[in-house]
Amino acid sequence: MALREEQILRYSRQILLRDVGGRGQEALLEGGARLEGSGPAGLTAAAYLAGGGTPVVGSESRLAPAAVGFLASAEDVGRPASEVLARVLPDVNPDAAAPHAGGRIAELPAAWNGEAPWVALGGDGTRGAVVFRGRQGCVWCFGETVRTLQAPPMGVLGVALGALGALVFQRLQLGMGPELGGRWLAAPGQVLELELHRCAKCREAK
Ligand SMILES: [Zn+2]
To answer: What count of Cα atoms within 13 Å lies in the side-chain half-sphere of residue 170?
Structure first.
């Protein structure tokens, strides 16, 4: 797929970044994300992904009052995320309006299936957490790690976590490593390494 002139203008900032480039931007537009979740972290991730060119399709989970702000208004509370995103994302980016099959980005707790990338948005009650897996990353290590986490934070930290999750998802779409990992978000902009829980097979292989 070749970029149209208006797309080159829309994504010029990303294309100029060495890590994305024209090829990378085409990969983002051809990819897609299924979003599970309807809180500030999930909706912010959807907005950033759509803004960057990745089509996003929402789930049936209904918007909570805490989701109001970034993309959703007070009237959207109680509506399914899929319906709200289908309405507002074309305004963020018309290219991201037609959802493709693709990876998964979800607020924990969530079920995991389908193709990579997988990005989990969670927390430990104080901090936010992002756990991610590319195509080569171990499914079981990912699962054991996300099982230890709770739902993502609300408020400003949730918004920052969603932005970080979208960035991680885009990097995996672009084939930029690592293929498996996690990060704590202690405060907006304060990112720390999250140690993975290894599955029995990977522990043996060490
Ligand atoms: Zn493993």
So the answer is: 26
